[in-house]
User: Fold this.
Amino acid sequence: MDRFSIHEASAAEVQGALSVRIRVFVEIQKFPLDEEKDQHDEDAVHVVITDRERGNAVIGTLRILRAADAVKLGRIVVLPEYQGLGLGRRLMEFTEQLIARHPELRLCRTINLGSQCDKRGFYEKCGYLPRGEVYDELG
Assistant:
């Protein structure tokens, strides 16, 4: 059996996902706490990676937002101690499959995401193509 599970988050797991986001984006990367949780979290579909060896603790996450005929992936993160294990790629693949079968999301024609510049190579390896200009968000 695989040590890691990737699935749509339960209500309790959404709280774990927020904790992961705060640890990485706020504590490590120093983004403002009040920018991390926003009004979109309530409407988003959250996907998590859990670790069975840590009592099914959430160790990675992303959220899916719907906008017209597109979905936007955001808040994509895997805890630093789990990076390099291929979990980010598995998270992206699972999410693409979830979108394809989800009754509301499967009608969307495009998957978009925003990324930190240093993560561009990862997303390109996952099959995403850069589009648009680089922009500054919170420095």
Summary: Residues 22 and 36 are 7 Å apart (CA to CA). The mean pLDDT is 89. Strands lie at 4-8, 45-51, 57-67, 70-78, 110-113. The first strand starts at residue 4 and ends at 8.
